[in-house]
TrEMBL record:
Catalyzes the base-exchange of a guanine (G) residue with the queuine precursor 7-aminomethyl-7-deazaguanine (PreQ1) at position 34 (anticodon wobble position) in tRNAs with GU(N) anticodons (tRNA-Asp, -Asn, -His and -Tyr). Catalysis occurs through a double-displacement mechanism. The nucleophile active site attacks the C1' of nucleotide 34 to detach the guanine base from the RNA, forming a covalent enzyme-RNA intermediate. The proton acceptor active site deprotonates the incoming PreQ1, allowing a nucleophilic attack on the C1' of the ribose to form the product. The keyword Metal-binding applies. Pfam families: TGT (PF01702). The lineage of its organism: Bacteria, Pseudomonadati, Pseudomonadota, Alphaproteobacteria, Rhodobacterales. The gene is tgt. The keyword Cytoplasm does not apply. Belongs to the queuine tRNA-ribosyltransferase family. Binds 1 zinc ion per subunit. Zn(2+) binds at residues 305, 307, 310, 336. Keywords: Glycosyltransferase, Metal-binding, Queuosine biosynthesis, Transferase, tRNA processing, Zinc. This is Queuine tRNA-ribosyltransferase. Its cofactor is Zn(2+). Residues 15-369 form the tRNA-guanine(15) transglycosylase-like domain.
Amino acid sequence: MTQRFGFQVHATDGKARTGTISTPRGEIRTPAFMPVGTAATVKAMMPESVRATGADILLGNTYHLMLRPTAERIAALGGLHRFMNWERPILTDSGGFQVMSLSSLRKLTEEGVRFSSHIDGSKHMLTPERSMEIQKLLGSDIVMCFDECPALPATDDVVAKSMRMSMRWAQRSRDAFGDRPGHALFGIMQGGVTRDLREESAEALKSIGFDGYAVGGLAVGEGQEAMFSVLDYAPGFLPEDKPRYLMGVGKPDDIVGAVERGIDMMDCVLPSRSGRTGQAWTRRGQVNIKNQRHQDDPRPLDEHCTCPACRNYSRAYLHHVFRAQEIISSMLLTWHNLHYYQELMQGLRDAIFENRLQSFVADFHAERAQGDIEPL
Ligand SMILES: [Zn+2]
């Protein structure tokens, strides 16, 4: 097995690519969807179950783990992989996004962000250097630069100032990360929905040099149309021989659209979070299992799905356990959703490899347009 981080593109179809990211902890097939394990667990799932859905890599959250149980404690216990019993690759975010969305009493300066924990009010400081230190303590395979991302809509002036500070932080992150063979550091492009700022950000990152590049600052409320309009050009500003990661995306049709536009990696809490609120994602759109119409339905959620929820249980059962607030409801629906997402990624990878992405995407939209299964 390789001891270095690497990326190889096997095939392209239009702007879409399929390839392999190599790490000492295993390979990641791209385009890849990364389930989110916020607090060192993908909620309601055992790690081996997450693997069984087809996931090659998980995402962990710096902000949550630094507050509880702390990065130092995880390091003393052998690192995040051992701590959570997931030996395959882990990507950690920098904490920048969540400190801005979850913490209180924030003070943002050139140095970093001072804030109070949303858990117990304790005071903390995150800087590019501290974020690199935490992600090293966790033992993350793919480390993200510490950045700042203004909420959209924002004026060009606000977006530009924020982006330029993030680029200075990217240089500080690079310097603090140092040389760690087998571990990767990704830069994060900012610039909102403004093409010139996106290009300026990409140029700044490329001159520093990273192992991969993320498109940040999207999926923050701008809507799919605005997101796709940025993705129509932004991936083209990034090097072709490095992975491109779209952070925090998304719904199945967001994922398909992003892959069509040249994105290689994505993460989102959506499949796991929806699983806990009774929402299932299927080939034929979203199903709300708490809906009364499922209570006598002996059919599975999706007759073509091979996940345990669809193989062994009826809609009536899933409806019942959700209504009765049984824990197995979250387990089964989360499993199904993660399985559906990974199956979609496999379908995209195969289609790109076989140069038939366009017809795959047409079928994807046609199937969803049919709506959920016909009445009994
Ligand atoms: Zn299923």
